[in-house]
Specification:
Rossmann fold; 191 residues; globular; single chain; six-stranded mixed β-sheet; alpha/beta
Length: 191
């Protein structure tokens, strides 16, 4: 049987709008309203999983995805000492460190995880994906990691994959053979 994994990125948060490393803030009211408007537009899943973050849990609730289970392998990237800091602040204080993180997939000098580690854990989860349809409301970097692993892309592409809030990206297949259905905004009842 084929596995279908629909990766949904969370609604907009103040951290994302301010280009700040995520620190647990809630989704914005407008994002919550957009998610509620899209409720019912997703195909019926056999299972719903979420990254262990406030914004992913709130987005899943707003989308009407009841019974979502936090999946440890899909947690957001650990950015160590940069958590909650603005990208401009880190760029000014640690330009070389940020440069290493953006160019060397094995670098984890911020005290958190490397891109390689994130891609490995998400890839392992994807390889064990259950048959049937899974909807996963996950952090943008988890969508990136899943695409890098599923398509066998070089890790240098990780930072070149843009993941917009409230978009869906679908993978279908099984371990070792995945197909990508390019994502788009979730259907809403807005005009």
């Amino acid at each position: 049987m084929t596995s279908r994994v629909l990766l949904v990125s969370p609604a907009m948060t103040p951290a994302l709008r301010q280009a700040r490393f995520y620190d647990g803030d809630s989704i914005e009211d407008v994002g919550a309203a957009r998610a509620r408007s899209a409720a019912g537009s997703l195909p019926a899943p056999a299972r719903v999983v979420v990254s262990a973050s406030t914004r992913c849990r709130e987005t899943a609730r707003a989308l009407g995805l009841d019974g979502a289970v936090e999946e440890a392998a899909l947690r957001g990237v650990d950015v160590g000492r940069w958590r909650g800091r603005a990208l401009d602040e880190v760029t000014g204080a640690e330009p070389e460190a940020l440069g290493h993180w953006l160019t060397d997939p094995a670098w984890a000098g911020h005290g958190g995880e490397s891109v390689r580690e994130v891609c490995a854990r998400v890839g392992a989860w994807l390889d064990g994906a259950a048959d049937g349809r899974t909807v996963a409301v996950v952090e943008p970097e988890i969508v990136r990691a899943a695409l890098v692993g599923a398509l066998g892309l070089p890790m240098s592409t990780f930072w070149r994959l843009d993941v917009v809030p409230l978009t869906a990206t679908e993978l279908s297949g099984r371990a070792g053979r995945w197909n990508l259905r390019l994502g788009g905004p979730l259907a809403t009842s807005e005009a």
